[in-house]
Amino acid sequence: MVSDGTKFTVKVLYPEDKRKYLIGTNAGRYRRVESGMQTADPALQRAGALANIRPQHLTAAFLMAPLDLETADGVYVLDEERRLEPGLKKDEQVIRTFYVLTLLERTGNGAEAHVVRRLWFDRCKTGTPLARQDLYEDGRVATTIRYEGTIRSEDGRPWVDRVAIERVDDLYAVDVLFAEGALTLDGEVPDEAFTLGNDENLEVIDLDKRADLLEPAAATRP
């Protein structure tokens, strides 16, 4: 997937029966493609939930929004939580302790607040203690991001070796794996990194040209 900040393209090469080239708008208001959804386009039917991928779902995991704890509409709560989780050995169970920072925003006259984000920090982990990030939309968890393991970048700085992004309602998940020493932090990004060709001549699905996918508000927008 690549994006120029406005439009995005997604090249799906695997599995074989879902090879597609998707085009859309980052802020596009599309109906969610669901399993078994009836559509006149067999290509879109085969693409399925992969058509729900958006750049902001991924960038939220790597380019985290700053924690503005001083805003008048912001509220935060810090607590501790213990969880029984699988250990390193087979059938092993361990208790892991987390600091959980919950960020809320006031709505209306400020009398109510709703959760927008939760950050989980592993108390026993060094280097990259952030273990999980939950992002909320309309009061529900929309994205769950898990950070696992620790590697070193080219200049020796710590980084996670696996980022697992799950969009439950969108019916898809993405695992991003990093190789030790192959990651460059704060490096130069060439212009070609924001373009994605279709040399394989994959079937093209342009979400902006799909009237059956546009939400009413988007369909009437000039």
Secondary structure: number of strands: 13
> What portion of residues is helical?
under 10%
Identify low-pLDDT runs.
218-222
In the sheet with the most strands, the strands line up as 4-5-6-7-8-11-12
Q: What's the helix count? A: 3
Outline:
globular
Strand content range: 35-45%
Q: Roughly how many Å apart are the termini?
A: 27 Å
Mean pLDDT: 84
Q: Kindly provide the radius of gyration, computed on alpha-carbon positions and rounded to a whole number of angstroms.
A: 20 Å
User: What count of domains describes the coordinates?
Assistant: 1
Class of secondary structure makeup: mainly beta
* Most strands sheet: 7 strands, antiparallel
SSE order, one letter for each helix or strand: EEEHHEEEEEEEEEEH
Describe this structure in words.
With 222 residues, the protein is mostly beta strands. It has helices at 42-47, 55-62, 216-219, and strands at residues 2-3, 7-12, 20-25, 74-86, 93-107, 112-122, 130-137, 140-148, 151-152, 158-159, 162-167, 172-177, 204-206. The chain has one domain. The radius of gyration is 20 Å and the shape is globular. A hairpin with a 3-residue loop joins strand 1 and strand 2.
